[in-house]
Amino acid sequence: MGEPQSTALPLRWWQFTDREDATLRGSRLIVGAISWALVLPLIGCAAVGPAGADGAAGPQGAQGPTGAPGLPGAAGAQGAAGPRGASGSDGSSGAAGAPGAIGPQGPAGVPGAPGSSASALFFALMPPDNTATVAVGGDVEFPQNGPTTNTGIARSSTTAFTLATPGVYRVSFQVSVTEAGQLELTLDGVPLQYTVTGRATGTSLIGLTTLVATTTVGQVLTVRNPVGNSTALTITPLAGGASSSSATLLIELVKAN
Q1: How many Cβ atoms from other residues are within 10 Å of residue 119's Cβ?
Q2: CA torsion, points 217, 146, 186, 135, in degrees to nearest 10?
Q3: Which domain holds residue 176?
Q4: Which end of the chain has fewer CB atoms < 10 Å from its terminal CB, N or C?
């Protein structure tokens, strides 16, 4: 069996055994006093009471200086379009642009009404024609036929010519006369006053080109020495030379009704 266990309690730092001498006891007491001197303040500082209630808020301090501007923020979403504003006044016209290219040819138009190609020439040669003078109120003879392009213009006598188609005709005549005098056109024996033409003196041609309108089929045209004149007219033979001189009457249909 082992040695018997000791039941003695451990000694505290301030307790001494009987065998320790007086010097050792004194050292222990000094060390213990110093230790308490160091520990007691720490024990007192470590003990913290409960926190007190918050005090009343103090007055607001003066506003501090403005801080430096911050970085620009991201662009916001585009807003909805506003209402349309009123129209402004018209600006001045700009300079004319360069001519554009020529466009394609358009479609053919509607065919027009058939044209008229009727024409006829009648004439006299002196001599042998018109040997007698043309009395006042009498008609000049054109007894010979020239070229024609249509049968709608035809003679009804040596002095009268029938216009078969109602419409507008171009009529030209020239006659060389010896006396001062006048000539005019008649339609169905009625003088057309706007066609009177003449000369005052000297041997020369009396001539005219004008338009005549007919309204019915088969009206008759003549060249007349106007009623009211005082002189019968001599159709000049061999006017200006040795050859027979001509008197002509040209009738052309310009537009049929």
Answers
A1: 19
A2: -140
A3: 119-256
A4: N
